[in-house]
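Protocol step 4 of 6: structure prediction from sequence.
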Amino acid sequence: MAELTDTILLDVQTVQKHLDSIELHSISFQLTAGRKLAIIGESGSGKSSLLKIIGGLTAADSGQVLFQGKRVKGPEEVLLPGHPGIAYLSQHFELRNNYRMEELLEYGNQLNPAMMQDLIELCQIGHLLKRKNDTLSGGERQRIALAKLLLTKPALLLLDEPFSNLDMQHRQAIRDIVDGISNQLQITCIMVSHDPLDILPWANEVMVLEAGKLIQSGSPNQVYQFPVNSYAAGLLGEYTLANEALRSLFQLDPQIQFIRPAQVVLTEKGISAMMLSSRYCGGYTAYTFQTSAGQLLMHSTDHDLEEGKAYQLRIQSA
């Protein structure tokens, strides 16, 4: 597993950018080597624009990005857009046609044969090397594109919605590969995504962008359990707004603003609530209960609760 250090790899300083309807407002943060950062936000919040500025593919209007202590230059300042040591995988990645995959991977390869073989195994592409681009599925092409970037030995890997165009089977395969890359190759990663399943199990840190502003950052648990507003709460899953009546009924801390469904549990002695409706979600069932203080969402592995029946509930601490 990659060791986390105190070395500042990336320093983003008051970056601002206006692009059509997207505007970044004085974004600042630092990222230490070995960390895994997820950036979340709804469409138009500026996630991808920020990632491209970090990678040197788009110029900021003001502010700067320092990578390993050196300023990342914009595309107008360099012959080829991008910055040495930073690899960017777009959700619209492209591969050259009419080449065998082994030929594509040889271009720009900076790894010795043993390390290259390890990477091929990690990315699960050994069986694809003799094939051409037009014979591969979307998930297979994405694994090749990712391996091609990693062969350049980047210190920072930028992943822009890497799972968005994949079906469930390929999403899980790429998730496993990205997790392996983070842990085995000691590469610092920043991922942009809108899916909590991509973010929460993977990231060390989460940043929330709303309308181009950085409104919250912290560990996945902090951002999930203690979102700063309903926008941040909704990005990472369902919730019940903890109004004053609910807090009083369940004797909750006055500072609690949001209740996640997994915090609501059945108990023998608790608050009586009637089950209104249910949604089967595979590993759990999502229930809506009516309490005297309002409705409450609960996720439970007990799939047999009856509609219209009263149950006793309590709310666990986050």
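Step 5 (inspection) to follow. The chain has a mean pLDDT of 90.
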